[in-house]
Amino acid sequence: MPKLGCVRVEIEILGSGTSTGVPVVGCGCAVCLSANPRNKRLRSSVVFTVTQGNQTRRLLVDVTPDIRMQALRSGISAVDAVLITHTHADHCHGLDDMRALYWCGGKKAIDLWAYPESLSSLKQTFAYIFDETYDYKAIARFETHTFEQEPFTVAGVKVQPLQVVHGNMRVAGFRVGDAAYITDTNLVPETAMNLLKGCKLLVLDALRKAPHPTHMSLPQALEVAREAGVERVFFTHITHDLDHDKVNAELPDWARLGYDMLRAAVEENGRISVMEPKPSGLPPFIALR
Length: 289
What we know:
Blueprint: E1 8-15, E2 45-52, E3 55-61, H1 67-74, E4 81-83, H2 89-92, H3 99-104, E5 110-114, H4 116-125, H5 127-130, E6 142-146, E7 152-154, E8 157-166, E9 169-176, E10 179-182, H6 190-196, E11 201-205, H7 218-228, E12 232-236, H8 244-248, E13 255-257, E14 263-266, E15 272-275, H9 284-287
Parallel strand pairs: 3-4, 4-5, 5-6, 10-11, 11-12, 12-13
Antiparallel strand pairs: 1-2, 1-14, 2-3, 7-8, 8-9, 9-10, 14-15
């Protein structure tokens, strides 16, 4: 993996929940009724913040149905690009809400990167957004790009795609410098594992303890992180089967369940720092904190 030089790469977990989010509508389980804010999980997404000198770039990975709340909670008013992992609804159906970030970004088309089949799917689902003749002004505009397995550069940041398997479809993980994000996978192939080598910080899919046909279980995810040799791993895309504090008490010190608004970074000196969530300024019942 090409090095970025003297650079800081931060991953903020905007949402750590599975497709239903947690609490789940209509569920009365202990996790869904928990008062612990770290058991409150919006749909899974992260933002990479890459800082080099006085220049900062933000790469949003996926646009969930919760993107409005995620952006408000984390104080995100603009992004330099959107990276799409795949087009299941919980990962892309907030695309229309990108219009506020488009306006805040000076109405400059936002770079959007995806696999060719993912971009094709987005153009069908959100045909009006990608229709240049559509004259309604209150929509976001995107400059679209596709990738396969080779690194690409966006906003001056080199991104390495990590092709993983999610049931019968491929999903893109992403590595930026020594930090990586992989969601929605039941298999990390050898090619992707090789690209993870030397990575220090990983945010990784771990749905629940029990096996699942399209997601990694917590034991499987822990083994992938061990094999990759990462220094720290935070698990995401979590169901209401996993209680934050109880599960963390069972994990090794270098592995933890992720949670909404957690920020972890590979600093310029190569060390990993973990930061508490920034105050959102939103009422608690809205902020889910």
